[in-house]
């Protein structure tokens, strides 16, 4: 006898509630996860529909009390059933409970709607508004003036937010509405969440360039195959990948199918989203990362009802329940925001591949710097690869100069700005062109490096940089190797050895001192905590309200600033030594993207990369924008050390309030793994402290498993899951799995 776990309502909180039913002999073997069945429910045994989310051999309750499934409703696949199957796959692949996986796939309807969803927009032109503003200021109508000023600046405002931030009370809003200056739109009407200025979304459609045309034709050709492969577009920055995506989307729409476009983060790819909107207008909806679960649910409903055909959004948009999905596009495919950091820790690329395969949709990935995973699949012929080698309009890629910071020090310059960079900045400022300065702090763990010779202290076992910890220790985040902080460089004996500390704020001060008349904008975690501050800073810079933009990796993505002719990378080494096997790949990507920001307008661009390790292949290759040679070098290293994608790796993450309990637990897991899979081809590394060793009073440790075959890791994961479940010692330790 077999038993089925069934949920009866996918859209509500009841998602958590599963009910077990007996499977009658007549249905055994036929019934599958995802199917819609008819079951008796409640006291009166009402017939209702349910979804099968799991099938087991053992009943959870007394067998005689279980009711029996009546029938399978339809063999036909619904969108829900394929999403349930997808959730089941995610559960299995990434390690989570079925409910966690289902909640990732189906947003839950909220009982209470958020109070105000009204948006204030200007009802007159900005010119008219400016005239009114003068009058208001004259009459000392402060609240009205504040509101109007903000609206002139931003085009629209959330009503609740305006009340809170600007003191725009209901009477202020009403007065302005009666005067005909503003309109109040409810969320239902206001379906263009990104429009800040109606004029910016003109409907343009370009003629593709020859190269773009070739890529388009190639992809359409691939789509004619019986089993079309995922297509990877490798196009240099500014080559027009977005134009190609839009043609592909139009093609799919003309077949009556729908499309999902994944982007790394809306705030940072604002311009790209506006281009999609400009072309497809209200066929398209945008999923913010800041939407509540309920709002996401509403957006999904519209997709299901056929009110929209295209969904643009971050990784969660992947689960949009389109009835006839035709295409999934993943832009900037290499970005690490596509990897979820909460259980199930799915990767959007892999999950998209699975969904596309199940629903016979196409998958298109694009990047100037593909992830090693995607590129190696293309090399193996699992993906079809297409290239865009030229920037649109024949604009040359910027010239790149690499500056050796060791030499600067030797020649007496102890500033963070090399002489070459200072001089280049001076020239641009005189010509009234713009400059971007970039501090690639991503994953910054605090490594020790020698400013005289460039030596960085590495783990002797793992070939990654050691991280500086409080209390004067250097620790490897893979194997846990520990050593004392040194005072002198072990390689050259120089005393100039230490952690690189400068932050964006400090750099702003230095630059301001150096160029007192320059106008500087800064974009980092501190300056972008407020909603919409990303867009405000970027727009201000685009309007040339500043000469220099200083920022972290936030500033390097997808923006077109035609007046930027110089990009300075302050210390390329920062991301190179993040203590992670992907650090060279990230550095190459960040540098290539950063360099690609310069010279997108009519004047040619230039980039200056400062570094203590000018000979490093990721820096050399990024300077030449040479993906292929970077790929060769990096894959060689991954093969040698057994890191993905050359091999497979799984992290077992543990967190607990008690340090000793955690340490013991992790050791037990290690021993258990050795017992269930004792062959030497499985490499066990750690347990080691995680990159951040303690968060909110929880200690965190990690155990790494490496094996050439992924099935082995999944087998071990399943065994570990069972072991943890039955072992009461693990009740106070949270264990999570992360397949890399
Ligand atoms: P990528 O996404 O590859 O970095 P984009 O799609 O952003 O490149 O294109 C870079 C710039 O070139 C954009 O401003 C875009 O509007 C313009 N562009 C690209 N292709 C065309 C085309 N065929 N006709 C007109 N403009 C184009
Ligand atoms: Zn040294
Ligand atoms: Zn190590």
* Strand content bin: 15-25%
Low-confidence stretches: 111-116, 188-201
Cross-sheet strand order for the largest sheet: 12-13-11-14-15-10-16
* Biggest pleated-sheet summary: 7 strands, parallel
Helix content: 25-40%
Number of discrete helical segments: 22
Number of DSSP-assigned strands: 31
Mean pLDDT: 85
> What overall form do the CA principal axes indicate?
globular
Question: What class do helices, strands and sheet pairing give?
Answer: alpha/beta
Bound molecules: adenosine-5'-diphosphate, zinc ion
CA(first)-CA(last) distance: 38 Å
Detail the topology: elements first, then pairings:
Blueprint: E1 2-7, E2 19-23, E3 36-41, E4 46-56, E5 67-68, E6 71-74, H1 79-95, H2 98-105, E7 118-122, H3 126-138, H4 142-154, E8 156-158, H5 159-166, H6 170-178, E9 182-186, H7 210-223, E10 231-235, H8 241-254, E11 258-262, H9 270-280, E12 284-286, H10 293-305, E13 310-313, E14 325-330, H11 348-359, E15 362-367, H12 372-379, E16 384-388, E17 399-404, H13 405-410, H14 419-430, E18 434-438, E19 448-450, E20 467-469, E21 473-475, E22 482-484, E23 497-499, H15 504-514, E24 520-523, H16 533-542, E25 548-551, E26 564-569, H17 573-576, H18 583-595, E27 606-611, H19 617-623, H20 627-641, E28 648-656, H21 659-676, E29 683-695, E30 698-707, H22 710-726, E31 734-739
Parallel strand pairs: 2-5, 10-15, 10-16, 11-13, 11-14, 12-13, 14-15, 17-27, 18-25, 18-26, 24-25, 26-27
Antiparallel strand pairs: 1-2, 1-4, 3-4, 3-6, 7-8, 7-9, 19-23, 20-21, 21-22, 28-30, 28-31, 29-30
Helix pairs in contact: 1-2, 1-11, 1-22, 3-4, 7-8, 18-19, 19-20, 21-22
Bound molecules: adenosine-5'-diphosphate and zinc ion (ZN) (2 copies).
